[in-house]
Design brief:
- The complex is a heterodimer of chains A (317) and B (292).
- Chain A has 13 helices and no strands.
- With 317 residues, chain A is mainly alpha-helical.
- The two termini of chain A are 17 Å apart.
- Chain B is mainly alpha-helical.
- Chain B is built from eleven helices and no strands.
- Chain B is flat and about 80 Å long.
- The model of chain B has no long low-confidence stretch (mean pLDDT 87).
- The chains are: A mainly alpha (317), B mainly alpha (292).
- The interface between A and B is large, with 56 and 47 residues.
């Protein structure tokens, strides 16, 4: 396993351009706003002096690439600026909000993995059967279902009619884990359904491909059933694919969280970014988008490294 | 040569009978096309079809349950829900088409150029596309919408911008494959110009997966519009949108639950129809794929 540090080093090196481009896109968001960015950042009713000061701090009179450098310098040192609405440091806002989003997203990913992957396996090992038709139909439905509508229907039934779960809000998991999980359950379920559908579909088609390979045909000829083949020979082969598919869902989870958090009034990062975008609080928007994209990039890196550990062929790619 | 078995009369099928055979073989696509055609008609003739004005408020009829006058009831301002549902259709279709058009206009040429130029330019541009694809799509769309200014058109421009890298990556990959194919080499050997190669060889080969992807994108764009309008970043009140209707109705969920159903089903059915169409096209256009 002495190759591992080398491998991680190479992956990190490949990440550099992606991180540079991603941060540049976040930086550019402010420049998409029509008008002078200094006036935008100074907020409403700002004095001329304040605007001039901001122009000075961010170097808005200098070339774009210099401005990017200045902005990146601030950001890397943890200075994400201040909210235009509350003047709280953006980083503090994110630290308050992000744990709620992470809890819901992780919870949803666990639910989705526990249901979606077995469904995909079940369908792939019985292609053309009723089970397969059932799974693919359910998956088609799940992909097209607006998650916030499902969320509303969940609230209507399980909060307002049965009173099983609280309808809104969130609790920190560090204070009261039971209550935190209870609050996060409905949002996580609403978020999970689309991911279950996506996982079932992708796992199914990936497995069908694997199971139709020569290697598996030989096993089949030896009289093994598809399920036995998977258990005895296949899971390691398939685990890399599944890991990749799971990793790709993080983007979907964060996207869904924005709307789901709005339905359940969860004070999370998604709600923060939507509220800030509507109210033109751009330092907060940039901060949240940056943190989320960095999380996604780091998860992709982890998936890459784990895949390489599981499958030596992937290390060569 | 008498061994040839006569397999029945071989006569060219009429277009009508071919259509009929196709319809019987792909019921899903027929249903999807039927539903979407209906939706287009409803959108075009919304002013004629809608029984009431979608904007007219009536304080005497707040949050009425469905009855013979108001088939789907009224909302919290006494507006007819059915009429708002009908007026929401053109907004949703406009939104999906706009977002996907922007994605095509940006993604396809960029993908072609990257794939065709290749080399270090491909390396750099591909990393840029990777970076864009690392953003959670709706989050980036919300951020861009906030920057451009909220409203349906800006929201859908943003969604289109967010979708573009998906198409660019697809078109790039197709271009790379076709560019190095033997017959393209041959064409080049005969002195074909770059423009000729792109138009005559690369575009026709790259177009099939793009058509499938674009159809599936219509569904994602529709769901994105509904989400953004639900968050009040998309269609602005008092104009009607399905996502916006759900957002309003959610405030009164305890007294008027019935209002949650119609807009939700409208979004679901339309997204299903786009997806079904996309899947059917994938099967129809891909000769190697038989009924998956």
């Amino acid at each position: 396993m002495h190759r591992l540090p080398f491998l991680i080093g190479r992956r990190l090196w490949q990440l550099v351009p992606i991180i540079v481009f991603a941060t540049f896109v976040v930086f550019l968001l402010l420049h998409l706003v029509p008008g002078d960015p200094a006036v935008t950042l100074a907020g409403d009713y700002a004095s001329k002096e304040r605007i001039a000061e901001i122009r000075q701090i961010y170097g808005f009179d200098k070339p774009l690439i210099v401005q990017y450098g200045v902005w990146l310098g601030h950001t890397v040192t943890g200075d994400f600026g201040k909210s235009l609405l509350s003047s709280a440091p953006v980083l503090d806002l994110i630290k308050q909000r992000l744990p709620n989003t992470i809890l819901i997203a992780t919870y949803a990913l666990l639910i989705a993995g526990a249901i979606g992957i077995p469904l995909g396996v079940l369908a792939a090992t019985r292609v053309g059967s009723r089970v397969d038709t059932f799974v693919t139909s359910i998956a088609s439905l799940g992909v097209a279902l607006p998650s916030f509508w499902l969320a509303i229907l969940l609230v209507a039934n399980f909060s307002l009619i049965f009173h099983w779960f609280p309808a809104t809000g969130a609790r920190p998991i560090t204070v009261d884990p039971r209550l935190a999980i209870l609050h996060a359950t409905l949002p996580a379920v609403a978020l999970a359904v689309g991911v279950i559908a996506e996982l079932a579909r992708q796992v199914r088609s990936a497995l069908i491909e694997v199971l139709s390979s020569q290697y598996y045909r030989t096993l089949r000829a030896k009289g093994l059933s598809p399920i036995a083949m998977l258990w005895k020979h296949g899971l390691r082969n398939v685990s890399v694919t599944m890991l990749t598919i799971l990793g790709l869902q993080v983007n979907r989870l964060f996207s869904g969280a924005v709307v789901i958090e709005a339905v359940f009034a969860v004070p999370g990062a998604g709600q923060l970014v939507a509220y800030s975008a509507i109210n033109k609080d751009f330092p907060v928007v940039q901060g949240v988008v940056l943190v989320l994209v960095v999380i996604v990039i780091l998860i992709n890196l982890t998936v890459d490294v784990l895949s390489a550990l599981l499958d030596p062929r992937a290390a060569q790619a | 040569m008498t061994a040839i078995v006569n397999q029945g009369p071989v006569r060219p099928r009429s277009p009508l009978s071919r259509l009929w055979r196709w319809m019987r073989s792909d019921v899903r696509a027929v249903l999807a096309i039927g539903y979407l055609t209906m939706l287009v008609i409803v959108s075009l003739f919304a002013p004629v079809i809608a029984p009431y004005s979608p904007l007219e408020q009536n304080v005497a009829n707040l949050l009425l349950p469905p009855d013979t006058h108001y088939w789907l009831g009224t909302d919290d301002l006494g507006r007819d829900v059915l009429s708002r549902l009908i007026w929401g259709a053109p907004n949703s279709l406009y939104a999906s088409l706009l977002a996907v058009s922007v994605a095509i206009a940006l993604g396809v040429p960029i993908g072609l150029i990257i794939g065709f130029v290749g080399g270090w330019f491909d390396e750099v541009a591909s990393r840029f596309i990777d970076a864009l694809l690392s953003f959670p799509p709706i989050v980036l769309a919300i951020a861009v919408t906030g920057a451009l200014g909220i409203g349906l058109t800006n929201a859908m421009l943003s969604v289109g911008f967010v979708f573009a890298p998906f198409l660019a990556r697809l078109v790039r990959a197709q271009t790379l494959t076709v560019k190095n194919a033997l017959y393209v080499d041959a064409a080049r050997g005969f002195g074909a110009s770059t423009t000729h190669i792109i138009i005559k060889h690369i575009v026709p080969n790259a177009i099939q997966p793009v058509i499938v992807q674009v159809t599936l994108m219509l569904a994602i764009a529709l769901l994105a519009e509904a989400s953004l309008s639900f968050l009040s970043l998309g269609v602005q009140p008092p104009a009607a949108s399905w996502g916006g209707m759900l957002a309003r109705a959610y405030n009164y969920i305890e007294i008027a639950l019935a209002q949650m159903y119609a807009p939700g089903f409208a979004i679901l059915l339309t997204a299903l129809a786009f997806n079904a169409l996309g899947e059917s096209m994938r099967v129809a256009l891909d000769p190697t794929m038989k009924r998956r």
